[in-house]
Amino acid sequence: QVQLVESGGGLVQPGGSLRLSCAASGFTLDYYAIGWFRQAPGKEREGVSCIRSSDSSTYYADSVKGRFTISRDNAKNTVYLQMNSLKPEDTAVYYCALRSPWRGSYCPRVYDYWGQGTQVTVSS
Fold first, then answer.
1. Residue 13 and residue 11: Cα distance in Å, rounded?
2. How many other CB atoms are there within 10 angstroms of residue 124's CB atom?
3. First to last CA, the chain
4. CB atoms closer than 10 angstroms to residue 25
């Protein structure tokens, strides 16, 4: 059974950093895409970043470009989202999602599995 477990969320001051982790179990990260999404209260879910195993390419929403970095550790079956220069508007529940298998040259729009989410709060 495939499971995704996010961790690393918390309360941080504006300008601070957090690193979110998405640990996958129940399968091997081979050909896949993993996306990070976020949803703030009263707002629609927003795609934040995506990484594809086919070419190790990454995607970032304009709102986080230059501040967030997605990376992977296949040995640990884990994908990370390093978030720097955090702003109050980054406050949301962050989710990771998996599409596997995936060999596309773009980020998928539909994902097969989702984690439970981790809260990120940016506030002074």
1. 7
2. 8
3. 40
4. 12
Contact 33, 52 (CB under 8 A): yes
Q: Average pLDDT, stretch 64-74?
A: 94
Peptide bond into 88 cis (omega under 30): no
3-class DSSP state of 14: coil
The whole-number pLDDT of residue 112 equals: 93
In 10 A of CB 74, how many CB atoms?
12
Whole-number average pLDDT of the chain: 93
Per the document, the length of the chain is 124
pLDDT in tens, 32-63: 999 999 999 999 999 999 999 877 899 999 99
Question: Residue for token digits 């989410």?
Answer: 117
Cβ proximity of 33 and 50 under 8 Å: yes
Contact 54, 29 (CB under 8 A): no
